[in-house]
# Entry
Amino acid sequence: MNELKTELKQLVIDALDLEDVTVDDIDSSEPLFIDGLGLDSIDALELGLALQKCYGIKLTADSEETRKHFASIDSLAELVASHKNA
Amino acid sequence: MKARHWSTVSEAGAVSGIRFMFGIYRWFGRLPFRICLYPVILYYFLFKKTARDASLEYLRHMRADYRLRDDQPLLLQSYRHFMNFGECILDKLAVWQGDISLDSLAFHNHEVFDDLVSRGQGCVMVGSHLGNLEICRALAKRNVSVTINVLMHTAHATRFNEMLSRANSEAHVNVIQVSEISPATAILLKQKIDDGEFLVIAGDRTPVSGQGNVTEVSFLGERCYMPQGPFVLASILRCPVLSIFCLRRERGGKPFFDLYMDHFADRIRLPRRDRESALEETVQRWADLLAGYCQKAPLQWFNFYSYWHRADADPNTEISPD
# Structure
């Protein structure tokens, strides 16, 4: 799981072109959007596309659900793990 | 009085009236249709104050920006503006019925479009409610091998679309209803771009959800909000952007359409560091292009709601439905 989290941090950094941010700077439990890492709605779209490309995850149209999945690296890891097991 | 967001104003021609009018067109032709259209449009002109005020506001802006002749009474121009809207609705129905063919369309500078099609490169086409894009959708359906998807803001136009689909069962195909661009929609649309499909999206109406996503620009001499959506979408889809306009004129007593597609950008880049300024620059460039086309067909501006009212207000507070 920790490996996956590191992988996801790198994915976030690459997909969103986060300059000056390293894997070590991101706390798995901190919010990705607004506070914490400070991502915005355009980043959310990029992140969705990156998840689809790397893991084949198709998000549902339910925005509330997406918001939960995108809350932190921890919740993203859960999403990816459950998708892999499915 | 609080100005209303466009999505809360029902389309100026009520559907029942249009259905009757369409019957006249179908049974008797365009001339009797027109004879009936005059009083109907006069009715809307006289009693739909919101739409009339919006029309006058737009025409005043056009005049102040030297894009419209001012040697005619403003009210007369406004009435003709309404008449154009009536004709536009008929054209939409007529084209799906097969009464308007490719012979009635001139495709200007189509090289950009042809090049994309031959390379199998999907793209975003930014359109507007200036002119009549329905003509292109209908003709493309029959004559072009590329798949064209139209992104529409939610249920507002649904009743009209129901009528269209009654006129032609294919009319509903490839209309994607989106109220906001979510990550899920982005994935769906990315797939379409990857398959070489085209996405048409209106660049002149602000989002229904009202979650911001608008940029303040100068349009016809005054500040107003325009949507960021088409350009944000193009940036994440990493695809070229074209503008598309389909303007009407009369030729030999029949409607004739000029289709213009301009190259807008190979790719829209919204770098994180100056995203806001990149968006501003892009949306302003679009607003300028739109103003230029307004000058070509001043009375074919089919946004009958107050367009500039939110210039000094917070976009989030004004958009809530009445």
In short: Chain A touches chain B through 21 residues (CB under 8 Å). The mean pLDDT of chain A is 91. The first helix of chain A runs from residue 2 to 15. Chain A is about 55% helix and 0% strand.
